[in-house]
Write the structure tokens for this entry.
Amino acid sequence: MKWPLFSVPVMALLLAADAPKEGEVPELNQKVLAFTKDNLGKKVGDGECATLAVQALREAKAKPWFISPEGEYIWGKLVRTVTPKTNLGGEALPGDIVQFRDVTTTGKVGGTTIEASYPLHTAVIAAVKDDGKIVELLHQNYGEVQAKDEDRRKVQRSTLRFEDLQKGSIKIYRPAPRDGEKK
């Protein structure tokens, strides 16, 4: 199908209309996102997925992450938990940190069905679309199984549609100020 020339600008406007305005994104989120974007295509630390979020929080001077007594990675204030067919839209902002637990997704790319598994994975939200139902992620230690390990360990982009979630949970955390600080 041929698209008229005005379709690309119109689509860009429609997608931008859903994006949060600059002032709506908290300062800590902006700093986490800036660090993550600055490292796109580079390996941060050891290239593990959590290392990217740990370093981003450190650079933003946000409250450090911790592991709960139940073994959950806590990246700040929990703002949303997404499970299959529940809580698919809602609060999410660029700079929020996403924690995957025992996740399987199945979605279509073109005419091909793609399945992905994330037993335990961490990413940073780069953009929010469709009222939080779709997020663009920045993460490392991610990618095709057959890809070179050195390429997988670099910060890269991907898109996640929460409707593709088949199993597991995805928790979205907002970076929090260190104790005693306001931001």
In short: Residues 7-18 form the longest helix (12 residues). Residues 105 and 165 are 4 Å apart (CA to CA). The helical segments are 7-18, 27-38, 49-60, 149-152. The chain has one domain: 7-174.
